[in-house]
Amino acid sequence: MVPPCEAQPAHPGADWILRLEEANSRPQEEVGAIFADRPVLVLPHGGPRLAVLDAGDGWLRAIGRYRPYTGAAMIDVDAARMTTHVVLPANDELGGRWADWLARTFFASRMLASGWQMLHASAVVINRRALLFVAGSRGGKSTLAYRARSELGAVFLADDLVLIGPGRTVVGWPTRIAIPEELITGVPAMESERRRIIFSPSDLRSGTDCSGPAPLGAVVIIKPGGREAPSAAHTDEREALGLATDIPGQRLHTSDLLGLMGRPQVTCPGLQFDGFGDAPVIELRIGDMAALPTAGVWAALSGLLSYLEES
């Protein structure tokens, strides 16, 4: 988590143990031959790929590439000892991200199995409550989260994914952030030249104030069209839920299909999730999406989201 929900010392009763070491990776030709010779699990969007080398009752050995061009990691799972042992490729920054990926898979799969719901949204915290921005791909979620932080003094919670759980508690999920370049440089961009600057989760931890879990305050759906100036109105939550929960690729990323961190876990849409409750759901209409980095969105929202102005 960014930052963690709660920090606790390690103890012998841990649910699962992840052990790490580094070693020289197998030669690329040997790894390529292994992947060509057996079924390979490939996660969406150029994600990790895994091939099972051997398996038995309660144990499994797999080889993985974090990206097609990185070194190979060896992964041994011992269910009896509740341990995953990973030998990371030495001196390979991308290949070394297996530990982070496996840890996130562990927490996500167990949270989702216990009734939390993953939502495709950016989020900030204002006056101790989470404000979620929901939109389609490249629909302005990151832009408004960044603007809320710099213009309203909000605290960053998430750029792309959140988990919402019991009591409608919102937790930010650690993913990279893509911010329009013009918001950082202050130089307006031509539509054909729109660029984004990428920040990794570690960049955020070192350079950005991030919020821990917060109760849900409100949800804003960003929609193109309408009048030239931004306008906002209360709306039904069904459209927001449809946009926010339609993320099959991310569910695959947080499903432990091979049981690398315990028994195999496949996450499903949150059947126990019953909506946003009393939190207001607002439709924000943007006439010109290219103008979103400077459009008067807060003026349009202020009359509907009074807590933006609370001290």
Automatic annotation (TrEMBL):
Gene3D superfamilies registered for this protein in UniProt: P-loop containing nucleotide triphosphate hydrolases
Name of this protein: Serine kinase
Organism of origin: Planotetraspora thailandica
Classification of source organism: Bacteria, Bacillati, Actinomycetota, Actinomycetes, Streptosporangiales
